[in-house]
Design a protein that fits this description.
The chain has four helices and seven strands. By secondary structure, the chain is α+β, with helices and mostly antiparallel strands. A seven-stranded mixed beta sheet has the order 1-2-3-4-5-7-6, with helices on both faces.
């Protein structure tokens, strides 16, 4: 029997796809209620419908707060937007956690406004860790915090992904081979 045979009338078939930061930021600019596009990301995902129209996007980066964990251990959802398509949010949160787990991260987290319920996070296995942040603060360079986004307290939600700590990668300090000027491809040839 066809997969769509069980789809309720009027339901939209959705699937998750990788997208570029530029595409995700375009969705943020169009749909986000209170945040501007992001500067960078670890990866971004989109939800598209049967016509390949983008219905939602999620941007995952490293933790914004300095004390939130090692960037190789913790991912943070920095933006999530949809056009209101049912189930798009939960699909994106679940997919981001699956990708983070596959990449070896220990946890994924996000912050939501106090007035948001977190129902999609709860539905995908995330746990509310309580109130976090808010208020005015200054960057390390002394500049004040941006005021074009909410500065009130948030609720932090997280999902455990892996028990093993992230590997500490040893960075090479000596060139490959005898010729210090040779490229990797020249040495391998």
């Amino acid at each position: 029997m066809a997969r769509d045979a069980y789809k309720p009338e009027g339901a939209v078939g959705l699937r998750v796809v990788p997208i570029e930061l530029k595409e995700a930021n375009a969705a943020v600019a169009a749909w986000h209620r209170h945040h501007q596009p992001c500067q960078g990301h670890r990866f971004s995902l989109g939800v598209i419908d049967e016509t390949d129209a983008l219905r939602g996007a999620i941007i995952i980066g490293r933790p914004v707060a300095r004390m939130a964990g090692h960037p190789r251990a913790v991912l943070e959802v920095t933006r999530l937007v949809t056009d209101g398509t049912p189930n798009a949010c939960s699909m994106l949160y679940a997919a981001a956690a699956r990708v983070g787990k596959a990449l070896g991260y220990a946890r994924i987290q996000t912050y939501i406004l106090q007035e948001e319920t977190g129902v999609t996070l709860r539905a995908t296995g995330w746990v509310c860790e309580g109130r976090a942040g808010g208020g005015q603060w200054k960057h390390t360079d002394g500049k004040p915090r941006r005021t074009d986004q909410p500065t009130g307290a948030k609720a932090r939600w997280a999902k455990h992904l892996n028990d093993d700590p992230p590997a500490m990668i040893g960075i090479p300090t000596t060139p490959i081979g005898d010729d210090a000027g040779a490229s990797l491809f020249e040495v391998m040839a």
